[in-house]
Amino acid sequence: MKRTSFILGLCLLLAFFSNVNAQSTASDKKQEIQELVNNWHHDAAIADAEKYFGAMADGAIYLGTDATERWTKNEFQEWSKEYFESKKTWDFKTIERYVYFSSDNNTAWWDEKLDTWMGVCAGAGVATRTKQGWKISHYQLAIMIPNEKVNSVMELLHPNSKPEHKE
Hints:
With 167 residues, the protein is an alpha+beta fold. The protein has one domain: Roll (Nuclear Transport Factor 2, Chain: A), CATH 3.10.450.50. Helices cover 43% and strands 32% of the residues. It has 4 helices and 6 strands, in the order ααββαββββα. It has helices at 2-45, 49-54, 73-85, 150-157; strands at residues 56-63, 70-72, 93-101, 107-116, 119-130, 133-143. A 6-stranded mixed sheet has the order 2-1-6-5-4-3. β4 and β5 form a beta hairpin. Residues 20-24 have low confidence and may be disordered.
């Protein structure tokens, strides 16, 4: 009986520490992504092109707020070169961010609200684990328009058509 109790206690203890370790590992991974994205935004704000684009995977895609803004990493780097060289880049401050992981923990994705010069924007990204660490492979930035302002925006964008949305 004592041996059974001892083995049961040992199993419970191992299960407890295994669960604690899994939780800290999940927390550590989430922190890695938080730091990756925070540093990425910071590197843009201080116009450090090398670090900013170094955080992106070679085949990364960046979707901006304009309908024409779908860039590969190299296209985005070329387009933004003058901003980084003149030190007149963008400074996005995170309001909130939610991070998620694939079951194999090699892919992470997040959505975030950002305080920007355009007002509150939404960002969403994907990062993949590489031999060099986490790299951003996809990012999309969107201007958030309050629902009560959508008709006004639609009138600006399409002045000769009537908006379909009813308030």
